């Protein structure tokens, strides 16, 4: 802007100089030519009452002539000329000023010489004797006058231009400075009133743009926050499979960083199926596959992105797959566990029905049927219990529960079983109150004590301890039983998992006891610790938060 103003001011200065010079030249020339004609007229008209002879006498006394004087007879013959020989001059009757003087007493004209580039003024009067006295004076033409003064005009113009060069720069800075000093953020208005509407319009537009940018930034931050904080990994690729962006989850899943942007997706996922599905997504086809990476299973969705490329979403389905596997195993195990006692009951019943059992042996068969039925009922009850825990049904509201009282109650219920196996049960109980579901805590204690009795050695012992300290209440059941091998200790809380499958039918275990204990502990936000040595015994501790 400043440069344009400066150039325009210089052009205006140059044009103004030329126009002013031309105007002054024409004005001065007009005044000069008018004065010349007036002087020429006055110098001739004084002789109108004289004769040609008297005029000749007066002219002869003049030594220097600045004006051309010509005497002409009425027939046009030149009788005197102070510049040329009269005999050499042609008849002047055809001259305009001479004809006018003969007709009306005076005449004038002017003629331009292309050769000399000068203009001559003529003025003629008729004398008393009818002769014509003509005076002429030659002056430069307007272009001649301008060209003669051209060097001086150029010098003046250069001086004005040099002065204008500096003045235009200063004036330009002075004009532009208030505009440059405008601070739209501070609401500063320029001193030029003409610019006020323009500045107000810019201010409104600036505020509107700032609001739009703010809205877009909020929207971008929201989208970025959602994308970067979701657990699903997202990768955006172009039509050539080059990674444009990836979120934090994708970086964790694929063990990459932001440097992955700009690389081909095959450098990160070296899988032909991935390449095929990326190409399909770029072509507009939605695809999905499962892949395994770093021991986890991911479901990949390939979706086309209009005018850009494709998006790959990673959904971690490891837990889902594991749960599905557990459900299938659970169904298979339930079927197997139910089938075993039912098969025994059916076999014994068929033997009794067909009379294949002697009367003395029938009582033994009835006891076996009773035991298998009890085992079946216990299994069904455990299955119902763990199903309710899975679905979150049947949970009573938490209330104050005395762990020592529940432990005594569970031990008392299993006292007969302990006596049958010659197992001694000892207690070391402190009063500890917690907030919990009493029936679930009872099931937890019952299963732990039951396992300690079932998997103990004949004549062994079970020790039940409850301690309360530092905001925690711990329930510990330890035995002197067969113990659990180290390789099985991480799996004993799985459903239907048994360490010694050959002993399970004898002990009547369903494989669900410790799974129920684990679920109950999760519901009560309790921690379970297992310590065991083979053939030395097992100790399981459950730690609750308690009321002080």
Structural overview:
This protein is about 50% helix and about 20% strand. It has about 550 residues and is α+β, with helices and mostly antiparallel strands. It folds into 4 domains: about 1-150, Beta-Lactamase, CATH 3.30.450.20; about 230-315, Beta-Lactamase; about 320-390, Orthogonal Bundle (Helix Hairpins), CATH 1.10.287.130; about 400-545, Histidine kinase-like ATPase, C-terminal domain (Heat Shock Protein 90). Helix 10 runs antiparallel to helix 11, helix 11 packs parallel to helix 16 (about 515-525) and helix 12 crosses helix 14 (about 440-455).
Give the SSE map.
Layout: H1 2-45, H2 52-60, E1 68-72, E2 78-81, H3 96-104, E3 106-113, E4 118-126, E5 132-140, H4 142-148, H5 150-180, H6 196-229, E6 233-238, E7 243-246, H7 248-254, H8 265-268, H9 272-282, E8 287-293, E9 296-305, E10 309-316, H10 318-353, H11 359-391, E11 399-402, H12 403-413, H13 415-420, E12 424-429, E13 433-436, H14 438-454, E14 461-469, E15 472-479, H15 504-507, H16 513-523, E16 527-533, E17 537-545
Parallel strand pairs: 12-14
Antiparallel strand pairs: 1-2, 1-5, 3-4, 4-5, 6-7, 6-10, 8-9, 9-10, 11-13, 14-15, 15-17, 16-17
Helix pairs in contact: 1-5, 10-11, 11-16, 12-14, 14-16
Main attributes?
single chain, alpha+beta, Beta-Lactamase, Helix Hairpins, 5-stranded antiparallel β-sheet
Give the full name of the CATH homologous superfamily of the largest domain.
PAS domain
Order of strands in the sheet with most strands:
2-1-5-4-3
Radius of gyration over alpha carbons?
63 Å
In CATH, the topology of the largest domain is named Beta-Lactamase
CATH architecture of the largest domain: 2-Layer Sandwich
Task: State the total count of DSSP E strands.
Answer: 17
Secondary-structure class: alpha+beta
SS strand fraction: 15-25%
Helix content: 40-55%
The largest sheet is:
5 strands, antiparallel
- Contiguous uncertain segments of 5+ residues: 502-506
The domain tally reads 4
Overall body shape: rod-shaped
In DSSP terms (H or I, runs of 4 or more residues), the helix count works out at 16
């Amino acid at each position: 802007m400043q440069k344009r103003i400066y150039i325009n001011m210089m052009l205006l200065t140059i044009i103004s100089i030329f126009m002013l010079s031309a105007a002054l030249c024409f004005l001065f020339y007009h005044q000069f030519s008018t004065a010349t004609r007036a002087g020429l007229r006055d110098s001739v008209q004084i002789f109108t009452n004289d004769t040609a002879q008297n005029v000749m006498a007066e002219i002869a006394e003049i030594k220097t002539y600045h004006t051309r004087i010509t005497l002409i007879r009425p027939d046009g013959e030149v009788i005197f000329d102070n510049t040329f020989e009269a005999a050499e001059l042609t008849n002047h009757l055809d001259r305009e000023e001479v004809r006018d003087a003969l007709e009306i007493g005076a005449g004038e004209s002017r003629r331009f010489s292309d050769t000399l580039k000068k203009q001559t003024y003529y003025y003629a009067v008729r004398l008393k004797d009818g002769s014509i006295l003509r005076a002429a004076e030659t002056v430069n033409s307007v272009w001649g006058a301008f060209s003669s003064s051209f060097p001086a005009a150029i010098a003046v113009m250069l001086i004005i231009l040099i002065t204008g060069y500096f003045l235009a720069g200063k004036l330009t800075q002075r004009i532009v400075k208030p505009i440059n000093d405008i601070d739209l953020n501070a609401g500063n208005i320029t001193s030029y009133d003409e610019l006020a509407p323009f500045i107000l319009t810019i201010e409104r537009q600036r505020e509107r743009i700032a609001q739009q940018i703010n809205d877009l930034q909020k929207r971008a931050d929201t989208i970025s926050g959602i994308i970067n904080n979701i657990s699903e990994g997202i990768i955006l690729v172009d039509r050539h499979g080059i990674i444009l962006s990836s979120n934090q989850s994708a970086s964790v899943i694929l063990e990459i960083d932001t440097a992955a942007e700009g690389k081909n997706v095959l450098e990160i996922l070296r899988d032909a199926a991935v390449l095929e599905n990326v190409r399909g997504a770029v072509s507009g086809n939605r695809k999905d596959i499962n892949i395994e990476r770093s021991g986890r299973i991911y479901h990949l969705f390939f979706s086309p992105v209009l005018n850009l490329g494709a998006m790959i979403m990673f959904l971690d389905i490891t837990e889902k797959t594991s749960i599905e596997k557990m459900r299938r195993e659970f169904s298979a195990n339930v079927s197997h566990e139910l089938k075993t006692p039912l098969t025994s009951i059916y076999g014994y019943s068929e033997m009794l029905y067909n009379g294949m059992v002697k009367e003395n042996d029938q009582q033994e068969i009835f006891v076996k049927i009773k035991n298998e039925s009890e085992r079946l009922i216990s299994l069904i009850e455990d299955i119902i219990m763990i199903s309710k825990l899975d679905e979150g049904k049947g949970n009573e509201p938490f209330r104050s529960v005395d762990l020592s009282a529940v432990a005594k109650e569970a031990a008392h219920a299993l006292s007969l079983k302990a006596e049958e196996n010659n197992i001694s049960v000892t207690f070391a109980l402190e009063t500890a109150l917690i907030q919990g579901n009493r029936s679930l805590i009872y099931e937890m204690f019952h299963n732990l004590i039951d396992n300690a009795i079932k998997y103990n050695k004949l004549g062994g012992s079970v020790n039940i301890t409850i301690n309360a300290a530092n905001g925690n209440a711990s329930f510990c059941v330890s035995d002197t039983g067969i113990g659990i091998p180290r390789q099985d200790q991480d799996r004993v809380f799985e459903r239907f998992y048994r360490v010694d499958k050959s002993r399970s039918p004898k002990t009547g275990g369903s494989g669900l006891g410790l799974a129920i204990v684990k679920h109950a502990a999760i519901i009560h936000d309790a921690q379970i610790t297992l310590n065991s040595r083979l053939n030395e015994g097992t100790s399981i501790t459950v730690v609750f938060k308690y009321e002080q």
